[in-house]
Amino acid sequence: MRRISCAASCRRSGVVAAFAGAALFSVLPGQAAAGDVQVTVYNRDFALIKETRSFDLKAGINETRFADVTSLLEPDSLVLRDPKDAGGIRIVEQNYEADPLSEEALLRRAEGKVVKFRVQNPATGAIEYVNAKVIRAGHGPGGWSPAGRGNFGVDSQPMSPIVELDGKTLFALPGQPLFDLIGADAILKPTLLWRLWAEKAGKRDIEVAYLSGGLRWEATYNLVAPETGDNFDLVGWVTIENESGAMFENARVKLMAGDVSKVQPPMMRRDMKVYAMASEGMAEPGVTERAFDEYHLYTLKERTTLRERELKQVEFCRADGLPGKRLYVYDGADVSPYGGYGNESVAGDPNYGTQANTKVATMIEFKNSKAAGLGIPLPKGTMKVYRADTDGGREFIGENSIDHTPADETVRLALGNAFDLKGERRQTDFKVDNQHRSASEGFEIKVRNHKKTAVEVRVVEHLYRWAEWKIAVSSDTYAKKDARTIEFVVSVPPDGEKVISYRVNYSW
């Protein structure tokens, strides 16, 4: 069985911590009774589990088990304390049985022994029994190999079993293995086995906290715009996924948003699949939010049960008539804008930066402010945008992700490319003077509008050849966005075209 053990010496007189740990604890007088549960889920695919359970302990060393923990628990993260008697209890040794009873586990115990197998005779169909010696138990994909690193959640390569049958070596089980009856001390679920030292006898309510993988949460936002205009309604959901191997019943659930530093072992997170969904619709958002240290903490108002392999969704924010703004952006240079920045070969190459695309991006932006009807910290997630059709239905028009966004910041979403807008960009002039280390370049940009209404388009140009530049001639007013970028904001008439031209001088 997969086991992680750690022994701690109890620095109290009369307490001995040097002993041999048993594979299974057969006497468990201090069995923990289930109590209050709190789960704080982080958006980095892990969670902090906090439970309060009752222990009936004797003075001195107690052998006890803490069952129903996750299969992706981090044993070295565990913290145990008695709030009423901080120094009155210690963990002397801890064993994490993360490989509960299974056929593979029993086969591993039987390695080197003879096991009876139930087989079906292929000729007669009769059930027969044969004895074979288990040389190697083997394991399937995702199983744990004692020779491996043993990181939780790491998928190891499958190994076939090896058995000796009738003097021959067989790389497969000959049939269904039959085992002796299991004892009452068998581990059926991931379990922590403890040797607890207690200063005095009695019943104690103990707080246990540990980190675990297998839990995650994310935010999803649905934006619904009317048939015309860009004011929209917003509903935000939190989706919680539990693949930790444990169920948390009637738990207080908190969601931590922010970039919390967490060292992850290689390949710790398994591929997640959707198995079930529990949806909870509420008249008011079911989540409250507050700042916590350098992050933001969202708390579900009602207790809930997080079942294993379940998706749970709860509404956490809502805004009606949120003022939005539609943006059209034409970034015509079909190259990495700064790929050759600061390179003299690029500065003098007449062909660099002349490739162009014709797509005009469509975006929507809004201010996350109280005045707009929102004004709360928005955790990172995916925003889906819908628009009402003439028949009253809603059609999906695009989605994108946002990062953590504080209140009073602007959210901008790229939704795709506009069908009725096209751009064209061509180089009209290029001269280079290597002796004086300078170059001059001209461009003409056209934006065509096939809509029946005028549109405003932001035309972005990257001055990528060198850091020293000056716009010599420009047909339209531009704004310097940063050291390498300028932007023209122009109006394009319905069924019309707008032409922009400029020339830039570089020196190096």
Explain what this protein looks like in three dimensions.
This protein has 508 residues and is an all-beta fold. It folds into four domains: 3-35 and 51-99 and 186-212, no CATH class; 103-178, no CATH class; 214-322, no CATH class; 325-366 and 410-507, Immunoglobulin-like (Sandwich), CATH 2.60.40. It contains two helices and 32 strands. A hairpin with a 3-residue loop joins strand 2 and strand 3.
Considering the chains and any ligands shown, give keywords for the structure.
2 helices; elongated; mainly beta; 32 strands; 508 residues; nine-stranded mixed β-sheet; eight-stranded mixed β-sheet; single chain
**Tally of structural domains:** 4
C-alpha-based Rg, rounded = 33 Å
Number of separate strands: 32
Q: Report the structural category.
A: mainly beta
